[in-house]
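Much of what follows relies on a compact textual record of a protein's fold. A complete example follows; check for yourself that the lines match position by position.
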Amino acid sequence: MKQSPEYRASLEQVTNYYHQHLNLAEEYLASRGLLLPDVSRFRLGVVKEPAVGHETYEGRLAIPYITKAGVVDIRFRSMDNSEPKYLGFPGAETRLYNVNSYFEAADWICVCEGEIDTITLSVIGLPAIGVPGVKNLKPHHYRILSDFDKIYVFSDGDQAGKDFAKDLARRVSGVVPVTLPDNEDVNSLYSKVGPDWFNERLAA
């Protein structure tokens, strides 16, 4: 569904508003190995005082989906392990996260699950696109990924993650599965071992 200029403007406005309170997430992000200067380009924020209609998202990390056209969606992540972990706008279209890396990458790109993992790979210096849930890839997403010679898929170390990598390999050529250790995701592993583990997998 095409978004109106007014709706896009409202997303930009609320993104800027929540971004002003990003310092409230400093401790949470640091616990994930992420520093505020490193994540500033993602325009993350915190819902300290919710905009009208956003009361459900109070206290959550605001994660805008930014394209060349600007902010097209926002998802909200809990920072205290409360469920549900993620909330989004009702009826919002499923989108890939950090799609601007598509234009910055050369002949290869990384794919992982979730926004925090995508931010983590980007902080390391790897062009990365995130899928908000392993079952949320759409046919046009496959066409986007098919433009690359190699697609490094950093799937979570669980059965769903492994199935995700296998399914993508069946649909798009050039997939290189990078399976993480059991019960780890990109960010949790990065927090423990740093960037070398990831860089070594791409150099192999």
The first strand starts at residue 45 and ends at 46. The chain has a mean pLDDT of 92. The chain is about 35% helix and 20% strand. Strands lie at 45-46, 61-67, 70-77, 86-88, 108-113, 128-131, 150-155, 175-179.
